[in-house]
Known about the structure:
The structure holds 2 protein chains of 2 kinds. Chain A is α+β, with helices and mostly antiparallel strands. Chain A is 19% helix and 25% strand. Chain A has a 5-stranded mixed beta sheet with strand order 2-1-5-3-4, with helices on one face. In chain A, helix 1 (30-40) crosses helix 2 (42-48). The longest helix of chain A is centred in the middle third of the chain and has 11 residues, at 30-40. Chain A starts with a strand and ends in a 5-residue tail after the last strand. By secondary structure, chain B is an alpha+beta fold. Helix content of chain B is 18%, strand content 28%. Chain B is built from 13 helices and 38 strands. In chain B, a hairpin with a 7-residue loop joins strand 36 (639-642) and strand 37. In chain B, helix 3 (105-123) runs antiparallel to helix 10 (265-281). Chain B is elongated. The termini of chain B are far apart. The A-B interface holds A 10-14, 16-17, 42-43, 45-48, 50-52, 54, 56-59, 88-89, 92-93 and B 101, 239-241, 286-287, 289-292, 317, 365-367, 382, 384-386, 389-390, 392, 395-398.
Amino acid sequence: MSVTFHIPGPLRPFADGRAQVKLEASVATVSEALQALWVACPGIRDRVVTEQGQIREHINLFVGNEDVRYTGGLTTPVSPGAEISIVPAISGG
Amino acid sequence: MIGELLGHYRIVSKIGQGGMGVVYRAHDEVLERDVALKVVREGTLVEKSSREHLLHEARAASALSHPNICTIHEVGEFAGELYMVMELIEGKTLSALIGTAALAVESILRYGAQIAGALAHAHGRNIIHHDLKSANIVVTPQGLVKVLDFGLARRVPNKLVADQATESIGPLEGAGAIAGTLFYMAPEVLRGQAGDHRSDLWALGVILYEAASGQLPFRGRTSLELSSAILHEPPSPLPDRIPPGLWAVIQRCLAKEPAQRYQQAGEVQAALEAVQSASKTAPAQPSEQRGPSTIVHRGIQHLRVKDGDVLLLVGTTKGAFLLRSTADRSRWDVAGPYFHGLAIYALAYDGRDDRHRLWASTSSYWGTYLRSSDDFGKVWTNPVEANIRFPSDSGTSLKNIWQICLGRPDQPNVLYCGVEPAALFESRDAGETWSLVRGLFDHPHRPRWVPGNGGLCLHTILPDPAHNDRMSVAISAAGVYSTDDGGCTWRARNRGIRVVHQPEKYPEFGQCVHKMVMHPARPERFFLQNHWGLYRSDDGAESWKDIANGVPSDFGFAIVMHPHNPDCVYILPVESDEFRCTADGCLRVYRTRNAGASWEPLMRGLPQKRAYETILRDAMTADSLDPLGLYFGTRSGQLYGSADEGKTWQRILEGLPAVVCVKCAVVGEPRVGRKPKATQVAAAHSSAAKPPVVKRKKRRGKLK
Lengths: 93, 704
């Protein structure tokens, strides 16, 4: 199966400049999909999660159009062909 | 062998083990210096003639003198053991730096040109490396490349190579030391020829490819497959981010026939330098502009800095600005913004050990990272992994880096960071790796520390220059903590500092210290700006005395020590806790020259009308010149400076984003062993006329 990550502009340098990273991986959850992404693009990990493995406060992850904060967080299921978007929240000063 | 004497070298510790033997850190008891000592393992030398040959070659290599070649001091035999004494190099091997991720183009070109320069020097003296690979190239923390083991290559008999190359049983990893070398072996050597200096250029091509892609150009599951790839297959194309010029250099180094390659290492060096200068002037490429492992700031007129110049580092909530001036400090060149849009709460210049390194902490949604630049801001590191991180058992995540502090001048690789949530991190390898200072993090008071308005942050770090194990830190809102045993244990030192935000007015800890300073030549003397309250300590922070004698308000954030006069400090009071702006719209610095007995306003050149300014804790600083230069930035984005000890001021810049950090350095300082000049200046100052005394306002308010 494959899963496709949509990479925001500031993180693309850590994905060889790509806006989408398609991974051929057998994954069941957002957590497993992220693990596969870290292997392919190690620089993205610390920018998306803290050193304790939590999604950073102002970063949102969507599976399809659903924010994973409301669908089970890192344990949200991922089906084959899923698209996962990494999106910074609208906040800050 | 640890502790033993080999000749006049005392073995200190084991550094590593290679195909040829064991490498130790040793101390030369005659020349009083640390060296690397390699003891050649018995049995690696096939026969006595090889031993003599090796001795001969090592002696020839010891004549090489080049900044990019590890110097061999001595080759000898002691009690039947063959040893080599070499320059001790602190750094990481290129293979460790590459890991599995490619290097930035800029680094590949910089390192590649240095390796080629080293080869050109050696080849010019008829010395061929024979075993060049990324594992025997070391990059120092300053970015200097050192090629190791020149002329020391194991004299691998041709038959052995041929056997390895045709052997197809067993995985390649099992083939031992020769396998590591095989990846870099030129086709002509594999075919059984002796190889010449052009075989070194092949190996350089392999290293450049490895650095550009994170992978070796020729691979195979067995040595037969690998040999076949080296002999017959072209390397796979490199990713798009590699400039065509660099790819062309690599391809020419990897030509199968030596005659098709560059014929001299100097040509490779020139070619890499040409690509380097072309890429500096080329238009920005999106993928290169922001990483991955470095950021090149294009479209900025960077500073041109000379030794003796004064450098101002200005951090704002939306990026950093760098300024320089000659020592007269009358005109400033400005460059920036660096780190466009990121908050820069901590900056530092490290001139120890002949470095010219800038440090910056950058904060955004994407986390907090520590970056450095060795060329005054053109290229900055962009760490793949966050370099400061709490250990997983702490359950804590980094929020911000508030302070970057250099270790003592005699410990040029030591750095400290103060972070939020309040903790101290230490690096002993010039910022490559960091560790949490557990003694403070595990302090029994920590669960009861409460955040101030800016969060629970460790914002001030003051290593005692006279006592290696002593250091004091300040935490908002926990107070002052000091260690006398190198960070193992810490004690709260807040006796005499009043708190306004809890019923007990003089608790053991919980003080909201805004900033603290120490005099470098009299490290027992401290001054402290509290959340309400100005204090002095003359006994190494054991006890504190209120010195707010005649200031318009003892509320404020910034406080700066005069580096040459232990009785002189500068503050920038704001009206109160509720109205954290300069009182009555008058921007005034206050100075004491008698250790706080009285304070005088300094306002010539500063606006005295409608200037409701806030100056944050790290937004005021001093240089080290005489007369002293002082600088501060405001939350409204103005930057002021004085080149005459605060007597007169000029606005250096306006219209910046909110200034949160101003740091200053004289380029080329501090040199190791430089002693701060001190007391004679202090004596001159203390005889000055008494300044006017201003009526003090009543203290009030509470901690937010």
